[in-house]
Amino acid sequence: MEPKQLAFSAALGFTLGVFPICGVTALLCGMAIALLGSRCHAPTVMLANLIATPIELSLVVPFLRFGEVIIGGPHFPLTSDALKKVLTGEASHEVVQSVLHAVGCQAWFEVTR
Fold first, then answer.
1. Which carries the bigger pLDDT value, residue 56 or residue 81?
2. The domain containing residue 45 runs over which residues?
3. How far is it, in rounded angstroms, from Cα 21 to Cα 57?
4. Cα-atom radius of gyration of the chain, to the nearest Å?
5. How far apart are CA 2 and CA 40, in angstroms?
6. For position 59, what pLDDT does the model report?
7. Burial class of residue 18 (count of CB atoms within 10 Å of its CB; 0-12, 13-18, 19+)
8. Membrane-spanning regions, if any (predicted)?
9. Count of domains observed in the chain
10. Does the N terminus or the C terminus of the chain have fewer Cβ atoms within 10 A?
11. Is 44 buried (19+), middle (13-18) or exposed (0-12) by CB count in 10 A?
């Protein structure tokens, strides 16, 4: 592999790896690998995605809060009862809205870079 190709693959995996919806990053990396084919090194993309996982998890709440500010949406309370509401389906609308705020924030960061 060429160094440029490995660097591109690592950057791609890391960039897709910080997407604020847990579990979607592997699918995004797989789609990128399928689209780019031989222009990227698949193991490097997936390794960078795996390495980015702790950063992704630590950025979910900041993305959520900043997305609320950017979009102007309501504040989603992150309490111990919030997980129970999510699992029972009581907070499904709020959760979807919060996820959209986080994705909007992440997209805003990507566009302004």
1. 56
2. 3-112
3. 9
4. 16
5. 10
6. 84
7. buried
8. 6-36
9. 1
10. C
11. buried
